[in-house]
Amino acid sequence: MSDWFQTLPIWQMGVVVFAMTYLVAGGIVIIITALAKGERARMFKQISAGLLSPLGILFGLMVVFCIGEVLSNFQRANLEVDREASAIRMVVLLAAGFPGEPEKDIRAFVRRHVDEAVSVEWPAMAKQSASLRVPAPGLTEALQFASSLTIKGEEQVTVQREIIAGLENAMDARRQRIILSQSSVNWLKWACLVVQAGCMMIAIAFVHCDNRATAMIATLIFATGAAVSVLLIASHDRPFTGEISVKPDVLLQVRPE
Question: Where would I find the H helices in 36-136?
């Protein structure tokens, strides 16, 4: 789906989805009932109502398939951001093991990373333009600095090792969230879902072609369910885009002052 649609507030997204779905449903009913004259009407009525059940099942399976994918990606994106925040928080706490300037420098590197993640990476991920080729300067410099710390005692050896492990964990979580920011339901899945919904509405209109009011009511009932399904999928399609998206709030919570 296009960026302009994905960035709409939910209510506006709903208006677009429902308007388009009802327009298509109404058009299908009007065309089919207008064609249902004479021999064509008898041919249309010979289409069994039993066809609606398998068509509905197929549409439901497609919806479940798409919703399962987007909700899984959304949950994974949340988990990766939480993991990044937890790793950063651990690094900030462990930095106290190197009091003085080393601790201040580590906190400054972490603060820089959080600021750049919020102000630069999140808008880029929302547009699906974030790239793994662009490094995280704050984490990279923090890792280089932690690796070159002067060790005084066995205790600091352990602290240094844990700081490095935490920074590497944070970098991996960042990589995963950037990868997940590229995820979305591809055009083929959307096309199959739309075609299946169209087939269902056409079949309903055929079955009730001798009564336009009945055909319109039945088709609009299904169209409402289809629009709700599309809205649910579209609103969660991109984990970092739109009103319902993964926010950097947990990173801001662990940002050192």
Answer: 39-45, 52-94, 101-116, 122-126
Judge residue 239's burial from the number of C-beta atoms within 10 Å of its C-beta, 0-12 exposed, 13-18 middle, 19 or more buried: buried
The domain total for the chain is 1
- The angle subtended at Cα 133 by Cα 129 and Cα 136, nearest 5°, is 95
Kindly state the helix (H) or strand (E) to which residue 212 belongs, with its residue range: helix 212-235
DSSP-based three-state secondary structure for 247: coil
Report yes or no: 190 and 70 within 8 Å, Cβ to Cβ: no
What range defines the domain where residue 183 resides? 3-253
- How many CB atoms neighbour CB 67 within 10 A? 15
What does the pLDDT look like over 171-210, one tens digit per residue? 999 999 999 999 999 899 999 999 999 999 999 999 988 8
Count of C-beta atoms within a 10 Å radius of residue 203: 22
Q: Are 145 and 106 in contact (CB under 8 A)?
A: yes
pLDDT of 62-102, one tens digit each? 999 999 999 999 999 999 999 999 999 999 999 999 999 99
